[in-house]
Design goal:
- The protein is an alpha/beta fold and 336 residues long.
- The chain has 2 domains: 6-248, P-loop containing nucleotide triphosphate hydrolases (Rossmann fold); 268-334, S-adenosyl-L-methionine-dependent methyltransferases (3-Layer(aba) Sandwich).
- The chain is 31% helix and 28% strand.
- The protein is built from 12 helices and 18 strands.
- The protein has a 6-stranded mixed sheet with strand order 7-8-9-4-10-11, with helices on both faces. Strands 1, 2, 3, 5 and 6 form a 5-stranded antiparallel sheet that branches. The chain has a 5-stranded mixed sheet with strand order 15-14-16-17-18.
- Helix 5 (123-136) runs antiparallel to helix 6 (151-164).
- The longest helix has 18 residues, at 181-198.
- The model has no long low-confidence stretch (mean pLDDT 86).
- This is Iron complex transport system ATP-binding protein.
- It comes from Pedobacter cryoconitis.
- Pfam families: ABC_tran.
- GO terms for molecular function: ATP binding; ATP hydrolysis activity.
- Residues 8-249 form the ABC transporter domain.
Length: 336
C-alpha cells in the first residue's frame, strides 16, 4: 500500500465544554486520532456521546480542554479563520432554506475564502464550481431556489458548496439526517466515491451503522463514558467494540450478519439446513416468530431444509419422524 498523507491528527485531545462557575464537563479524553487523504471516516456512537462536540473541536469551532490538534502540519489554534477555511469545509445538520438564494449562488459561497467580500469569481473559481456541480449531480436544479428543493437535493447542494471550497478535509455532521433510504444510500456512496476520486479526507458523523460498515475506510466509534475506538470497520466488529458501544436490553449486534437483532431469543429451537437467499430469509422469519436458530443436530429441535431459490424454493420440515414439503414460506410458517 502507498504511504498515506496525514491531513489532521490529534495528540492527547480532551473535548468538552464549560459547565459554568469555572467548571468544565469532559466528554472524552486522551484522543489520538488521524485523518488521511483519500479516506472516508465515519464517526458513530449513541446519542449524547459527544460526536458533534468532537467535530466542532477538530474543525476549530470549539476550543479543546486539553491536547493538540495539528491541521496540515500546523497547530490548529495558531491558524486564522481564513486559513482554516482553506483547509476545512464544514457541512452542519441544518439545511439552508433561504428563499431568495438560488442553488448556483449557494454553491458559489464555497469560493468565499478566495474571492473575498466582493465575491468576484475568477475563471478558476467558476471551473471549481462547475466541477462541484458535476460531482454531486446537482446540475438539473442549479437554477432553482433553495426553498424549492427536497431534503435530499438540499443536502447535495450543501455538499457541492463544500467541494467548491476545495479544501483537503471535508467534515459533515449527520448529512443523512431527514433523508429517505434511497437518498441516504446515494449520499453515502457519493461521499465514498469523492474521497477516492479527489483524494480528500472526508469525516462524517452518522447513525447509519449498516451503511458505514459498507463504505467507511475507518470508523471512529464513540461510547457513552468517553471511550473512542478507531479502526477498520471489520476490526471493530471482530474485537467486540460494536457490541459494547450499542449493547442495550433486548438489542444485540450480530457480528455474523453485521446487523442488530431486536428479537429476544425464542424458547423453541429449529435447525435450518440450506444456503443462499431463501435460507437466509427463512432464518429471519423463524426468529421473528419466536424461534432460536440451532446449528447443532439437536433431536429435540425442529428441522427445516431449504432448497432452491425464488419461485422454485421448497421448505421441507422434519418433526417426530415425519416430514412435509411446502412451496411457500407463508404456508410453511402457518404449520409451526
Amino acid at each position: 500500500m502507498e504511504a498515506q498523507t496525514t491531513l489532521l491528527y490529534t495528540s492527547g485531545l480532551t473535548i468538552g465544554y464549560q459547565a459554568g462557575k469555572g467548571k468544565t464537563k469532559v466528554i472524552a479524553g486522551d484522543l489520538d486520532l488521524e485523518l488521511h487523504a483519500g479516506q472516508l471516516v465515519c464517526l458513530l456512537g449513541p446519542n449524547g456521546c459527544g460526536k458533534s462536540t468532537l467535530l466542532r473541536t477538530i474543525s476549530g469551532l470549539q476550543h479543546p480542554l486539553k491536547g493538540k490538534i495539528t491541521l496540515d502540519g500546523a497547530a490548529l489554534h495558531q491558524l486564522k479563520p481564513a486559513q482554516v477555511a482553506k483547509k476545512i469545509s464544514l457541512v452542519l445538520t441544518d439545511n439552508v432554506r433561504a428563499g431568495n438564494l438560488d442553488v448556483y449562488s449557494l454553491i458559489s459561497l464555497g469560493r468565499y475564502p478566495y474571492s473575498g467580500w466582493l465575491g468576484i469569481l475568477t475563471e478558476q473559481d467558476k471551473r471549481l464550481i462547475e466541477q462541484a456541480i458535476k460531482a454531486t449531480d446537482t446540475g438539473a436544479f442549479v437554477g432553482r431556489k433553495m426553498d424549492s428543493l427536497s431534503d435530499g437535493e438540499c443536502q447535495k447542494v450543501m455538499l457541492a458548496r463544500a467541494i467548491a471550497q476545495d479544501t483537503p478535509l471535508i467534515i459533515l455532521d449527520e448529512p443523512t439526517a431527514h433523508l429517505d433510504l434511497p437518498s441516504r444510500i446515494q449520499l453515502m456512496r457519493l461521499l465514498h466515491q469523492l474521497a477516492k476520486e479527489t483524494n480528500k479526507a472526508i469525516l462524517l458523523s452518522t447513525h447509519e451503522l449498516d451503511l458505514a460498515l459498507q463504505v467507511a475506510d475507518q470508523i471512529w466509534l464513540m461510547s457513552n463514558g468517553g471511550q473512542l475506538d478507531a479502526g477498520l470497520p471489520e476490526e471493530l466488529v471482530l474485537n467486540g467494540a460494536f457490541q459494547h458501544a450499542f449493547d442495550k436490553d433486548g438489542i444485540a449486534f450480530d457480528a455474523a450478519s453485521g446487523t442488530f437483532n431486536i428479537h429476544q431469543a425464542g424458547k423453541r429451537y429449529v435447525n435450518v439446513k440450506g444456503e443462499g437467499v431463501a435460507a437466509f430469509w427463512t432464518k429471519k422469519a423463524l426468529v421473528r416468530n419466536g424461534f432460536s436458530i440451532s446449528s447443532a443436530e439437536d433431536h429435540q429441535a425442529l428441522r427445516v431444509t431449504v432448497s432452491g431459490e425464488g419461485a422454485d424454493a421448497l421448505w421441507t420440515v422434519e418433526k417426530n419422524n415425519k416430514s412435509a414439503t411446502y412451496t411457500s414460506l407463508r404456508g410453511f410458517l402457518l404449520t409451526l
